[in-house]
Amino acid sequence: MREYFEYRRDFCRYLCAPRKTLVLILCTMRSGSTLLKAMLGAASDVSHLPEVHFHQLRTSAFDFYTRFCRLAPEPIIVLKHPVWFTDSIGTFPVPKLSRIRMICLVRDCYPTLCSIKTMPGSDTPTNRELIAYWLRYTSQIVTKHGEAGALGRCIRYEDLVADPVTVSADLFKFIGSKMTHGVKEYVPPMGGEWQWGVDDGSDKIRSREVQPATTLDQDPELLALIEADVRIAELRARLGYDARN
Length: 245
Fold this sequence. Notes:
Blueprint: H1 2-16, E1 21-26, H2 33-40, H3 61-68, E2 76-80, E3 100-106, H4 109-117, H5 127-146, E4 152-156, H6 157-162, H7 164-175, H8 203-206, H9 220-227, H10 230-238
C-alpha cells in the first residue's frame, strides 16, 4: 500500500512539473563527457550545468524527472557524471521515460585507462583493476542504454573529436534542440570555469575548442594486458575499434 501511494505521489508531481527533456551522458571516467556537455551547452535551449551525481539517485522514473527538470531554465537539461572506479554502484540506475534521452559516450580502452592514470591523486588502481572497471561499465553502458532505440544513442569519443561539427549536429537533433548546425567551440559551464572534481579542469578543455586526440606515452604493461584479454577484444570489435589501434 505504501508503494502505491508513493507511486501516485511521484506521478502527480511529474504531471505538475515543467515539460522538459532530460539528457543523461553515461560514460566512464576520462571519456570526454566534459567536452560533450560543453558542446551541447552551446545551444541556447540546452543547459550547461556542472556535474550532477544523477546515477546515485535510485528512485522512480517520475521522481527522477521531477528532481532534475528544474535545475536550469532551459527546456533541455543535460546531466553528466562519469562513474568513477571508486564508485560501488552495480549498474546505471537510469529510469525509462519518454522525456529522458541517454547519450552513451565510449572511448577506447587503452587511452581511457592511460588518461585515468595521469589524473591527480594517489588512489589510482592497478592496471588489472582499471581493465576490470572499463570492461564492466563500458559493457553496461552499451548493452543497457546505448541500444535503447529512440531513447538512446551511442557515440565514440574518437569520432567526436575527429568530426565535432557532424557528430554534435546529429546529437542536437537527437535531443530535440532547435540548434540546426554542429559546433566545435564552446563556453564554460554555468557559474564559472571548469574545476577538477566537478568537471575536467585541464588546459585542454579550457581552450574552448575541440582539440585532436592526444598522443599518449606508451605503457607496455597495460597494453600487453589489454591485448591478452579476449573480453576486451570482443567489446572493442563491438564498438567498431580496429584491432590494430
